[in-house]
Amino acid sequence: MEIRPTTEQDRDVFAGTLYTAFGRFPETPDALFSAMELDRGLLAVAPDGRAVGTAAAYSFELTLPGEILVPVAGVTAVGVLPSHRRRGVLSALMRQQLADVRARGEALSVLLASEAGIYRRFGYGPATYTERLTVSRHRAAFASPRAGEVAAPGSIEVLRRAECGDVLEDVYDRYRRARPGALSRPHRWWDAGAGQPPVSLAPRYVAVHRDDAGVPDGYASYSLDSGTLTVDETITADDAVATALARFALDHDLITQVVFKHCPPGHPLRWQFADFRAGQASDETDWLWVRLLDIPRALTTRGWEADGELVLDVEDPFLDERGRYALTVRDGKAECVRTDREPDLSLDVSDLGSVYLGGTAPSTLVRAGHVRAHHPAAAGLADALFRAERAPHCLHWF
């Protein structure tokens, strides 16, 4: 079996192999493939010349704690034909892809896992989480007049998705630069409608919030069906604007409930209702998975909220690597060097990916038996160090 890079000439073969792997039929037109970077694609080719597996990556920016932007590989389109599974094809594709990511100088790789049991063995760990919030409209009174006020001066305008693509792109780009865990959405995604609403060109209404100077500073993309208003996503860096957009959705006529599809953990909306049970959380799930490929560079690039020193013994079974690192944080900056000192924590590289953005507490993984703490204070110190100023959240689908 050969693992080889793809070119534009492989587009149809790549798409056909991927669709077959997932038991689907090609869609025409397929907007997602218009965003593919086939110079980052891989084909697994059997001795008879038939393509039997695929893998690819997008070039994104990821926002780290401290509002630091770094290039990352967004792994996608990973599939193996049912006739060739459990023969090492997937492992060969993933190993070659990680080598290619390193060769590009990217310290991190990220993905959305179709099945949670697959990617930990390749060094990825779940790092951001999301949930659905369903609100009964007749119970959605706010706890106090102040909670329901639009604290942010400005106005809301309702537009169609086709009328405001540039506004969405600009507002999202400002939002993602300030939110840890957020990914960039390159212009070609918006231009081609490659992704889920509101990136896709599917019909949607968009409530656009503008500040008192008329500058768009938030939006909520939504649709109505059978008495339910479904919000695809609410994008703003301002909590007051988020409240205004939520209130707009909840005050809409001809509905009985509002579904907010993509809420971060600890979303404040439920706490704003007079009836806490007015909003029911469901479908809590992992979203962005993170994989570290250059541990010292990854740890020294992100921002830090607390000072301290921690020795990490990190094992990477898939790449047959192991390293012990002294992490020292002072005034929000970190140094990370190899050391032979006794470790505070021993962990798999996938667990380091889970805690990296601050969305998973190291102590949780210690209690779960994933991470070994070598003394009683180690887990608490790691919690203090890896905590982010805001819970990381990723909305982008790829």
TrEMBL record:
Supply the PROSITE patterns for this chain: GNAT (PS51186)
The domain of life is Bacteria
Q: Keywords on this record?
A: Acyltransferase, Transferase
Domain N-acetyltransferase positions:
1-141
> Where do the catalytic residues lie?
Y119, F398
Q: Where does acetyl-CoA bind?
A: V78, G79, V80, R86, R87, G88, V89, L90, S91, S114, E115
Could you give the subunit structure recorded for this chain? Homohexamer; trimer of dimers.
What the entry lists under NCBIfam families is as follows: PRK01346.1-4
What is the name of the protein in this document?
Answer: GNAT family N-acetyltransferase
Top-level taxonomy: Bacteria, Bacillati, Actinomycetota, Actinomycetes, Pseudonocardiales
